[in-house]
Design goal:
Layout lengths: L1 E2 L12 H12 L7 E3 L4 E8 L2 E8 L6 H11 L8 E3 L11 E4 L7 H9 L10 E4 L2
Parallel strand pairs: 1-5, 5-7
Antiparallel strand pairs: 2-3, 3-4, 6-7
Helix pairs in contact: 2-3
């Protein structure tokens, strides 16, 4: 589960993906487990939920380059694009509304576009999942 955003710019709508990951880490009791993984230029935490092993990831790059961290983590942790959930803002949604979609295009979101490009995932195939909390 990757929280897209601009690392270090907390409290902005554009970094809501990272805020959601912080909350998820607290709910999964791994908030103290965040560590910097220089191999993928991201903060990572490992968690278990309902028998599933989760890698929580917050890229340490600007939004437009988040995909580089996610693609590196996918290689390091042996993940496929279809295993990755992206949490990001969506200006087309009212604040506080959540949408879940499977595949499709980036719809103008540069962080999502970066992920699609770095993961070599076709935008015409439903190969990634996006969760928009705002």
């Amino acid at each position: 589960v990757a929280g897209l955003g601009n690392y270090g710019l907390r409290g902005t709508r554009h970094s809501v993906g990272m805020a959601v990951l912080d909350r998820l880490a607290r709910q999964l009791a791994v908030a103290e487990g965040w560590r910097a993984d220089r191999r993928c230029c991201a903060d990572v935490a490992l968690a278990t939920a309902r028998g599933l092993e989760l890698l929580l990831l917050k890229p340490r790059r600007l939004m437009n380059l988040n995909g580089l961290s996610i693609a590196s983590a996918a290689e390091i942790y042996r993940l496929h694009p279809e295993d990755i959930y992206l949490v990001h803002d969506d200006l087309d949604k009212a604040l506080g509304k959540v949408a879940i979609k499977l595949g499709g295009s980036a719809r103008g979101h540069n962080g999502v576009r970066s992920c699609i490009s770095a993961l070599h995932s076709s935008v015409s195939e439903p190969r990634w999942k996006g969760i928009s909390p705002a």
